[in-house]
Amino acid sequence: MEHAEFNKDLLKFLNASPTPWHAVATMKQRLDAAGFEELDEKDDWSLVHNRGYYVIRNGSSIVAFRTGAQDAAASGIRMVGAHTDSPCLKVKPNPELRRKGFFQLGVEVYGGVLMNPWFDRDLSLAGRVTLLDGQGRMLDTLVDFRKPVAFIPSLAIHLDREANTSRTVNAQTDLPPVLMQVPEEDTTGFDELLSQQIASDSGTKVRKILGYELAFYDAQEAGFVGLRDEFIASARLDNLLSCYIGLQALLNTSGEEAALLVCNDHEEVGSVSSEGAQGPFLSAILDRWCGAGKVKAIARSMMISADNAHGVHPNYLDKHDENHGPVLNKGPVIKVNHNQRYATNSRSAGVYRHISDELGLPHQTFVVRSDMACGSTIGPLTAANLGVTTLDIGVPQFGMHSIRELIGTEDGFTLFRVLTEFMQRKQVF
């Protein structure tokens, strides 16, 4: 895959994946097209060498792997991890608000949302719905309104003269989006509107909505930015970018070596769930793949946790350690924290630097300022759960956790090239 093709395909992936469920569905389509076989956790498995498989849990997390030419206990597994979720505004279970003829939906803040950028944006709505269909069968379906259907208007500065110096956002009262105007006698419910969209999307006749997990998202598509198109702007770059990079690396490996991609949901809220990185999903897959050889396989394995890094912002240079300010388009960022907020150690960092140097590709290093708190990733969680040597790395970006984020056009492709080589390396250590 060439550089330009990589970035154009990345935009398609981002635009097709407004929620974790859509992201996993998009990855499933690509894995199916590449000949990977889907496995069901309820069934018996009979894995063979030199094959590709994948497992989906809850529709929002996925593990895909190549078994390689020999037993994983002898070869180890080259693992890459990412997460499918992004901070957003999720619709509450009983969301309907009618005020002064405006139909609004109550929302719950999911993850560490940078809330101010959500105002005055064209918003759409997507997610998973559980329902009874026309025959009374219970099923899950994906829904995506696609077009802009909502807006969170700012309060005019004339009504808040201190807006530019002291305005704060109240998540309960300030964030309910406006979807339409309705007459006083209108009794149209959200479930009815949702049922109409599902019928339009899939032709499914809805007898009853039983539940949903829906999120508003930026209706503006991903695109190139800059006088020389040197940037990509999009929603959900944290961390669908890493999901895409890891998937493309797995699909482009030779298949001779055992390799695995895990994309977990719920990283943005702590990863404590059945499909999150603190849950048993990955370990359960490895148990069934490796059997009694799991401990030996882990001892020969390495995990690269890929999650975006904070690029040095030219307007806020003092927010970075002066020797560790990653620059966009200057290479992926090895993330280090000796208090174990990142799982990188000298050995795992050395493996990445060695491969990157062999390929003649750039890399950078990030350490948070000593007087600031450090974020974290699925890296330490996976390292602790499995006992696997782990590296934390990511593409540098601006605007992390905003509704629209920015990366350089070079760094994703660079990380893809290194991860592809890592996943087909005969010996990691």
UniProtKB/TrEMBL annotation:
Transmembrane segments: none annotated. Pfam families: Peptidase_M18 (PF02127). Coiled coil: none annotated. Its cofactor is Zn(2+). Keywords: Aminopeptidase, Hydrolase, Metal-binding, Metalloprotease, Protease, Zinc. One of its GO terms (molecular function) is aminopeptidase activity. The keyword Hydrolase applies. Its EC number is 3.4.11.-. Belongs to the peptidase M18 family. This is M18 family aminopeptidase.
